[in-house]
Specification:
Length: 640
């Protein structure tokens, strides 16, 4: 009867003990056969006995207990709890309070989420009202239930004040590391909204030869686009970042007369965008012959036919299926981007058979055999120009590559003209292209910004200069070291005008293709670099000269083996800066500019998403801040 009244035995301790049948409050050890009291019918005294007298068995007891608890947890995890059972579960008062309590604004988790949301608004060109959307709130509620939601007003102030101020401080800290700064700038007008934007991007190389590009400003430009107002704008933007005009190495801009005048009035060294100049030369070359222009217009008409008809596209795809070809669409030509014409011709050649079969069954103009020959010749001539455009529009491109690439393109044109051709009209077009090209790029070697940067690039050095020009470059370097203010600070606008004489057209910069292509550009340059015997060494300079140390560096630098084209010249200078203490500082300065204003153009693609009809109430200052955060945050890995 007593045993029936005893509680059920569940503990593993009873593996080593038995209950006394005569006295339920006593137990007998199975190991030593001794009887022990367990007042209150607990097992504590039994565990203590096992621990002190039988330690080995106590270890086994603990292991069994752990296995039992683990099995219990696994069984509970596999049990499905119904909503009714969950509702019946009674929460403690503390649990209720903690469940309802939200993070305050100073909570580290809340601050982290605020920062991520603010960056997301800038990076993805989202409206501030996005944070009030149902979908976004449901997502955050699921991921962070304790997050206290903020409205659009909070994030407007948070992004435009806290994030911007912190990031601007980091940007200012970075640009102060550059002894001299280079800049790219451009003006863009959105065709849909009519909003004009003026951008300014800073480029620099630090003492550790780390190169970076920083967006300083991209603001609305509501005034007239005159040179006087442009000069005033630039002076204001530079002053905002405490950048003196003397510290501006050069400004890359388009060839508009208003931009040129603005640079002269602001007393800034400026250069034409190389890609803009290529755009003008090639466009004039293509228009010089009626046969090329006629083929171009016919291709554009055929392209429009397919772009305005999904039925036509489907039928073209069926023809490509019959020919076992992949589905390729026609490529649209754009008047402001010369290489879009190249890509249109290239695509037509790839789908030539499919287009011919389509034209036989439909009412569109077919391309004649002689017209296909014109397209083929255009592709042959323009291929190096397309590669040069992509190369100089790269984020890694240096201004030092302009002279080598231009000389390579001129050589390509000469080679093409020496070959016998069937079409005299196309030969005349290429001859005209060469004349335009030579006229536009005839004075590059006379410009110190191009010449010195090329000479200080260990991939090129003196290879593309005549001995007389090389001596002039060395003299300029020596003069610059002795009087560092002279070369980059024009004394008057008249001197600036005389020195810079390159065109007067205001053409938008052509874009570049993201298509993956095997380039011949570097192989052609490598062939030019290796076309002569190894560089001849120079003798030791006169040690009695006051510039002996610098001249010695120039001799040692010239005699060193040139770097391969695929290698980074900045890394070379980083490794050899201790050996060339004077020249390395000049390399930081002259290798900082890009060859084109393409970095500023990239801003406008993002600006077009911000300045749209759905955000017509967005203030210009806030839009400029959003672009600033979008393009500068990744530079610091979002750590600011």
């Amino acid at each position: 009867m007593l045993s029936e009244m005893s509680p059920p035995i569940k503990s593993n301790i009873w593996t080593y003990f038995t209950i006394d049948k005569n006295d339920p409050e006593r137990s007998e050890c199975k190991i030593c056969n001794k009887s022990y009291s367990r007042k209150g019918r607990t097992t504590t005294s039994l565990k203590n006995h096992l621990k002190s007298i039988h330690p080995e068995e106590f270890c086994l007891f603990q292991s069994a207990n752990k296995e039992k608890e683990l099995k219990k947890k696994n069984d509970e995890a596999g049990t499905i709890v119904t909503p009714l059972q969950q509702a019946k579960k009674q929460l403690s008062l503390e649990e209720v309070i903690q469940k309802e309590k939200k993070w305050d604004t100073n909570n580290p988790n809340s601050k982290k989420i605020d920062k991520l949301i603010g960056e997301m608004i800038a990076l993805q060109n989202l409206p501030f009202s996005f944070v009030e959307g149902l979908g976004f709130r449901r997502l955050i509620q699921e991921l962070a239930p304790k997050y206290n939601f903020r409205g659009r007003n909070f994030f407007t102030d948070f992004v435009c004040n806290e994030l911007y101020i912190k990031l601007a401080a980091k940007v200012k800290e970075l640009i102060e590391k550059y002894d001299y700064k280079s800049f790219t700038t451009d003006i863009w007008t959105d065709p849909s909204s009519g909003v004009s934007l003026l951008s300014l991007t800073c480029h620099g190389v630090s003492e550790n030869f780390e190169r970076s590009s920083i967006v300083l400003k991209c603001e609305t430009f509501d005034d007239r686009h005159t040179g006087d107002i442009i000069a005033e704008k630039f002076n204001t933007m530079l002053a905002e970042w405490n950048i003196s005009n003397e510290k501006v190495h050069c400004m890359i801009r388009d060839e508009g007369s208003n931009m040129k005048r603005g640079m002269r009035l602001a007393l800034l060294n400026d250069l034409d965008c190389t890609v803009h100049k290529l755009q003008i030369v090639i466009r004039h070359g293509l228009r010089s012959q009626e046969c090329i222009e006629a083929v171009k217009q016919k291709c554009k008409k055929i392209t429009s036919h397919f772009n305005h008809s999904t039925i036509a596209q489907k039928q073209l795809e069926k023809i490509q299926d019959r020919l076992n070809q992949s589905h390729l669409k026609v490529f649209q030509d754009c008047v402001t981007r010369w290489n879009s014409t190249f890509y249109m011709f290239e695509r037509f050649m790839k789908i030539k058979d499919a287009l011919s079969l389509y034209a036989n069954d439909h009412n569109i103009e077919s391309i004649l055999p002689e017209e296909w020959k014109v397209i083929e010749c255009c592709l042959e001539v323009l291929k190096p120009f397309e590669e040069a455009t992509r190369e100089m529009s790269s984020s890694q491109a240096l201004i030092s590559s302009v002279i080598p690439i231009i000389q390579m393109l001129l050589k390509k044109l000469d080679v093409y003209l020496t070959k016998p051709r069937e079409s005299d009209s196309f030969r005349l077009a290429v001859s005209n292209l060469k004349s335009q090209f030579s006229a536009k790029f005839s004075s590059l070697e006379d410009n110190n910004l191009y010449a010195i940067s090329t000479y200080l690039d260990p991939r090129y050095k003196h290879k593309f200069f005549k001995p007389v020009t090389e001596e002039k470059i060395k003299d300029e370097i020596i003069k610059m070291v002795n009087d560092p203010v002279v070369p980059d600070s024009p004394k008057s606008p008249a001197e600036k005008t005389k020195r810079m004489r390159m065109g007067d057209s205001l053409d938008p910069e052509p874009g570049t293709s993201s298509m993956s292509k095997k380039t011949c550009l570097k192989s052609d340059l490598a062939m030019m670099l290796g076309s002569s015997s190894e560089d001849e060494g120079e003798g030791e300079p006169d040690n009695s000269s006051p510039d002996a140390l610098l001249r010695k560096e120039l001799v040692i630098y010239r005699n060193k083996k040139r770097l391969d084209l695929d290698e980074n010249p900045l890394n070379w200078w980083k490794v050899n800066r201790c050996e060339f203490k004077i020249l390395s500082k000049l390399a930081c300065r002259y290798l900082s500019p890009p060859p084109a204003s393409f970095p500023s153009e990239q801003l406008f693609s993002g600006a077009g998403l911000i300045y749209n009809p759905l955000r017509n109430r967005l203030e210009a200052e806030k839009a400029a801040i959003l672009l600033f955060i979008k393009y500068n945050s990744p530079i610091f890995n979002f750590n600011y």
